[in-house]
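Aggregate trends can hide what the representation actually does to any particular protein. In the encoding step, the backbone of a single protein was reduced to a row of integers, each denoting a local shape. The record that follows shows the chain in one-letter code together with its fold in token form.

***
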Amino acid sequence: MEDITKKLNVKFLRNEPLSNFTYTKTGGCADLVAFPKTLDDVSLISKYANKNNVPLTIIGNASNLIIKDGGIRGIVMILRDIKEIKKISDNSFVAGAGAAYIDASIFAQKHALSGLEFAAGIPGSVGGAVYMNAGAYGGETAQVIESVKVIDENGSIKDLSKVEMNFGYRHSLIQDKKYIVLAATFVLKSDDENLIQSRMDHFNALRFSKQPLNLPSCGSVFKRPEGHFAGKLIHDAGLQGFQLGGAQVSTKHAGFIVNVDHATATDYLDVIKHVQSTVYKNNKIHLETEVKIIGED
């Protein structure tokens, strides 16, 4: 991988602990971490990895992510510098994949555009939100997307329409393809700035009152089972406060697992498995993880 580090004017880190970047503060080392600043940088790194059969992993804000303690081989690209947000028409704007979703919602509010209020407290990146069709409080990313700019498996840049993105509950085409999200175009509705802000404040107040935002976590761990709420199933199973190692089912919201004492990724995974097995034993319902789990044991 020496060639790519010398060829590009990009920051690279070797054998870097990924716990420095994850919201859980866990995760092993990556062989090489790259911080591209331009779309061309992303394309060149992607083409290099493809040509040389080097594993390539993309990370945004790493907020809904668990990286195993064995780390990640090959190249990890962190897109936090691909973060420009700019208005392109009266009711639309484009945001880079590395832009914080919260910043996109703030940008929309300042331009009197409504529709992204639900994202006011979602800590992920725009790219991550597109990848998993992130949502909250009745809103989801698919509702406000017009198109997505991606790099395909050959390193070519192309635009995908909302229909082509095949959005579903916590799902998008990106999960099925080896594509990299570069940017997303949002289309919203005009509204009063103060009304938009009041809705954002309301959603954030709900989050602060219900979620353990004072501790490291990976956000909502499980998808919502049809006809049920994951948090309630976990609460009813008596698992709030359950702890293995430094990872604990939050006493504030059972749908969250928090790092209370120097947890490892293995601690997190062990807690997840215990929660899944207990809930299945009690209710015959399998809790599917919403959090993405990657890396080596």
Q: What stands out?
A: The longest helix spans residues 265-283.
